[in-house]
Amino acid sequence: MELFQQIVVYIIVGLALVYLVGKFLLPRSLFSSKKRPKKVCGEDDCGCH
Amino acid sequence: MSKQINVALIGNPNTGKTSVFNQLTGLNQKVGNYPGITVEKKEGICKLPRGVKAHILDLPGTYSLNTTSLDESVAVELLLNKNAKDHPDVAIVISDVENLKRNLFLFTQIKDLKIPTILVINMADRMSRKGITLDIDLLEKKLDTKIALVSTRKKVGIDRLKELIADYKNLSVAPNVDTTVIAPEYFKSLRETFPNEDLYKLWLVITQDVNFMPLEKNLVKDSSSFNTKSKSELKRLQQKETIKRYQFINSILKETYKVDINAAKGLKATLDKILTHKIFGYLIFFVILLTIFQAIYDWSSIPMDFIDETFASASEWVKTTLPPGMLTNLIAEGILSGIGGIVIFIPQIAFLFLFISLLEESGYMSRVVFLMDRVMRPFGLSGKSVVPLISGTACAIPAVMATRTIENWKERLITILVTPFTTCSARLPVYLIIIALVIPEGRFFGLGYQALTLMLLYLIGFGAAIISAMVLNKVLTIKTRTFFVMEMPNYKLPLIKNVTYTVWEKTKSFVLGAGKIILAISIILWFLGSNGFTDKYVNAESIVENRIEKEGLSSYNQESIAYNLSIYQESLNDSIAKNVYHLAPEQLIDSTNQLKQTLLDKAKNQEIASYKLENSYIGNMGKAIEPLVKPLGYDWKIGIALITSFAAREVFVSTLATIYSVGSDEEDTIKNRMAAEVNADTKKPLFNLASGISLLLFYAFAMQCMSTLAIVKRETNSWRWPLAQLVFMSLFAYIVALVAYQILK
Asked: What's the domain of life for this entry (chain B) (predicted)?
């Protein structure tokens, strides 16, 4: 039972780590097939706000 | 087959442009996007008298031809580019009868482009209610155009409009305003350099900041005869043009547009007079704000306490019900506390957005923005920055989300970057405990030093936000221009459906957006705090047990146990004396021994937990950064708290509580323990005035909030800004804290 719990914990921690790395460190293009718009958000004319 | 003419519908937002479009085209319309951009393109076919067909294009709403957004540039590009497929044969400017003066500004600009232009005065049904009378014939003559008085609500005037479109060839294309008078020499040189171009069109191209994507600006081959002007000079000329146009409009409306004030005295006019009053307007706003914040704190505290208790009980239930082990600990201490850390903010966020939504829906927010714009502008902020800055005192996360109402990107970005300086509720636990430790309890003019310090910290936060905004306004070179044109919508009762939708959307966005990140960080932090690689961590239990056997418990725990036992004995003796209990002396000793053993076990477990934490991954990290935090007067334990509180500031107190093995998060207990901490080098109390002030200032300025960084990343769609924010705020906080400690030590 202890071993099973340990395995599950390592999986959860691993998933959390992968999620954070994917979210913050890897470029978004790796996860999305959508093309980035020409006008990046952060300009007056980005149309996002 | 008859020729199909191109018709462009253009007008200010909220003038009923789309209603006119719908009535002209009926079901013969399609909606798409302009090529390459996400601006909606609505077009349709309209059958006109005498077998003429019109291709109607509903252009995005714009206040003028001086564009500030992509939507507006689409409209302007189409009007300027004669080679464009949809370049209009005739332009229809839709105006609202109540805002004719503002709407005519755009009309005169289009008319000056020498495009046949029809003026539609919409919402004509409101004229009698608002006491408005119009001399249409004279207005047509003065504007040198044809006018259709329309009421889309009552379906009046559309037939006349169709007649006018069909006869567009009879429309005059003479300009309304001679722009060249604003700078005769400049326009003369412009004319000499570009003899074949329309002057006003050239002027518009020169003064645009937003690039029109399909329109290429070719280099001028020989510009020796053309004297260029600096950006500020061009802006000054543009202001002159605006004044000139409004002079023209005012002179016309003076003769043709009359408002019977007695008839117009509606609720809107009366409320506007009070709510935008130079003194009462600010007072009312201040009172509303106070009420909102009081309500947020008061109303949130009940569900927040409930959430807190529920998650604590859930955690306890998991620990007692599930088989002991790593997974149980992760669920109880990592996942549940992580989810709890997200869910606990829901009431504050929901209430804040409930109030913001109510203010927006009722039409009051537009008045606030108008009122505050003058105050905020010198600092590079807009009137709309007020709401996020004030919301920031509750939590920076919804505050950053609230910046979405600011259209101007530079102002919005500055507001996003400075909002985390305002004192959020997560800083309060840190402030309260440090102030209680290092600031004496004396009074100054009836006000306690501690309360004054807390107020000062709020003022420092707000001051830092305003000063940073001023600096950022100078430093950021984002091209932007602000034309503060504010629509003053009618007052109305908020629709419950709209309010509910807004609150739901914003709350969901927080929980699903930042929530996932907070949860992932909580899991990692728990893992780093619950595991270690050194022998000291692996053998923590035997090491601590041996130490306790040889040296006994730590002096703090010994004192704490002795204190708790004396309290228990006193209370027991008191109860026996009052005949509440009847205990034999042996029973009294047994009971006391039982409690003593429980306290000893608890203290031993706490010391083991503390030792394990010290030697865990995160403990080692704390020790690793100790050289960095030592000059600020902190030790490795505070270093750990600084690391963990990077997830959320309030974690600082709970981390120290764990490290100091207090086991209870009662402020007083933690306070006593922290007060007893001794600096290993100086042998003086660790939390003294110098280190305390240093810590307070560090937390006042540092970006110790992962969730805020995540939200900033999401709102700016780039890591550049949150990272810049993190580096700047952390460095600034470090330097201020360092200077404060070195001076005060």
From this structure: Bacteria
Q: What is the CA radius of gyration of chain B?
A: 34
DSSP per-residue codes, B445-488: TTEEHHHHHHHHHHHHHHHHHHHHHHHHHHH-------------
* pLDDT the model gives residue A24: 65
ipTM metric = 0.73
Which residue in chain B has the smallest CA separation from A26? B719
Q: Give chain A's end-to-end CA distance (angstroms, integer).
A: 52
Radius of gyration (Cα) for chain A, nearest Å?
18
Could you read off the pLDDT of B469-517 as tens digits, one per residue? Answer: 999 988 887 666 555 556 666 677 777 877 887 788 778 877 776 677 7
- Taking contacts as CB-CB distances below 8 angstroms, the residues of chain A near B480 are 44
Taking 60 as the threshold, does the pLDDT of residue B35 lie above it? Answer: no
CATH number at residue B172: 3.40.50.300
**Distance, in angstroms, between A4 CA and closest chain B CA?**
9
Whether residue B212 lies inside any domain: the answer is yes
Select from A6, A43, A44 the Cβ nearest to the Cβ of B326.
Answer: A6
Looking at residue B743, what is its pLDDT? 93
B38 → closest Cβ in A12, A37, A44 = A37
pLDDT of B69 over the 80 cut: no
CA angle B482, B488, B491 (to 5 degrees): 150
Residue B605 lies in a domain: no
Distance from CA of B119 to the nearest CA of A (A): 28
Asked whether residue B657 is domain-assigned, the answer is: no
Asked if A42 lies within 8 A of B517 by C-beta distance, the reply is no
**Is there a contact between B343 and B300 (Cβ–Cβ < 8 Å)?**
no
User: What is the rounded CA–CA span in Å between residue B707 and residue B516?
Assistant: 10
Task: Calculate what percentage of chain B has a pLDDT beyond 70.
Answer: 86
Longest CA–CA span in chain A (Å) reads 57
Q: Which residue of B has its CA nearest to A23?
A: B517
CA–CA min distance B742, chain A (Å): 36
| For residue B664, pLDDT beyond 50 | no
Question: Which residue matches tokens 């323990």?
Answer: B673
For residue B683, being part of any structural domain is answered with: no
Indicate yes or no: CB of B73 within 8 angstroms of CB of A5.
no
